[in-house]
């Protein structure tokens, strides 16, 4: 996980996204404990309240849960929940924009498919 202090994205959101990335990659398996907010704040040299805000965001979303006196754990089904959320965001943020621009350029569905396939093959 990296924190970019120059980014327009708030640091607490970068923390939440970084933990989600770690869950998706398998670095933080479901039902396993994640680093404490203190560990996160020390590692990334950020305010503990900022780290807590990022972790709370994930807990509120059902990605993490708290075991009182022990710490935060990855919830069962968290990986799937993250994948679904990110797929929807991908559709909203990229696919709809792509389709809109394709229509402006009078590209066919087949043209777009070929371009995407080319991109997967790195033939640009």
Question: How would you describe this structure to a colleague?
Answer:
The chain is mainly alpha-helical and 124 residues long. 61% of the residues lie in helices and 6% in strands. The protein has five helices and two strands. The protein has helices at residues 11-25, 37-44, 48-60, 78-104, 109-121; strands at 64-67, 71-74. The protein has a two-stranded antiparallel sheet with strand order 1-2. Helix 1 crosses helix 3 (48-60). The chain is elongated. The protein starts with 10 loop residues before the first helix and ends with a helix. The mean pLDDT is 95.
Residue fraction in strands: 5-15%
Quantity of strands, as a count? 2
Looking across the biggest beta sheet, what order are the strands in?
1-2
Number of helices: 5
Cα-atom radius of gyration = 19 Å
Which percent bin holds the helix content?
Answer: 55-70%
**pLDDT under 50 segments (min length 5)?**
none
Q: Give the biggest beta sheet.
A: 2 strands, antiparallel
> What structural class is derived from the secondary structure elements?
mainly alpha
Q: In sequence order, what are the helices and strands, one letter per element?
A: HHHEEHH
Mean pLDDT: 95
Shape: elongated
Distance between the termini: 30 Å
